[in-house]
Amino acid sequence: MSQIIKSYKKFLIGNFFNIPVWVLRIIFPQVRTKIRESKIDFQSYAFIKLNPKSTLHTIKEKDLPKIRKVIEHNKITSKLSVKSKDLVETKDHSIFIKHKNDQMLLREYIPKNIGSDKIILFFHGGGWTIDSVNTYDDMVKYFSDYLNIKIFSFEYSLSPEEKFPNALKEAEEIYKWLINSGTPSNKISLSGDSAGAHMVASLSYKLAKQGSEMPNSLLMIYPPCDPQFKSESINLFKDEYFLLHSDLSWFWNKFRKNQTDEDNPMFNLLKFDLTIAFPPTILVTGGFDPICDEGTQYANLLKKQGTNIKILNYPTLFHNFAFMTKLHTARKAVNNFLDEYKKIV
Question: Is this structure's pTM higher than 0.85?
Fold first, then answer.
């Protein structure tokens, strides 16, 4: 019987996006819990229920390089992101990074219809420990095509092999490489998803603290901000909505170099202590994301220092929804925040 159930689930997962929502309601008749006046989007709920819970937090460090390849393969072949309407050309650049003392990948996305001389520097998600430029390829192509703008996606080093702040130093180098290659800072926007959004926040802080040239705008998509887990949403959504508390704790522990990082505003974003406004910023949260409250807290810290920031909360969505635009509500949300991004980039 268990083998029959496994085969049935495998079939549903493989055909999920071809199944009408009304059919899903028959297959998944469970009542969704209303939390803070919202219920999770139904199609998203069905997709989450169909997929097994993550076991990332159980992986041993010696096995992580091999597991990364499996995760990347599975995410790429699952095709959860909608393809771009028009062809987006890509060019891979091998850039020497002094901090790494090695060549690192910077992928350039060139949309069919370029509508701006500005560019976006993008940092992928994955809890600082997994995922890659390749994993996020379809998502970034969609962004580039929708925005009609060139995007550069950077393959920064992962933890625990490279702990904080190594990836941040690499990110600063690639940002300055773009400037030195002829794109002034006021034509560069920084964007990132999850851990990549944390990178955007950290890099912006570092640049501001140093008095370096700042980018023209920022887009942070559900950034992890608080390694101390003090928010209400952490407890409300810790076990059911893709990003598990156990995985989140595992990510932070792999990223952290030592305990003193907890007081570093480039690690713990809620320790923000600058009296400098960031460039115009959009910060995206999902209502069923365990880190949504800390994202809002961080946005409010920026706002107090004069940053022109717009918080876009999608109350029925979850962490990582921007990567899953084949879900109807996720795609509408992504299009909405990209429309807002167009206004500041």
Answer: yes
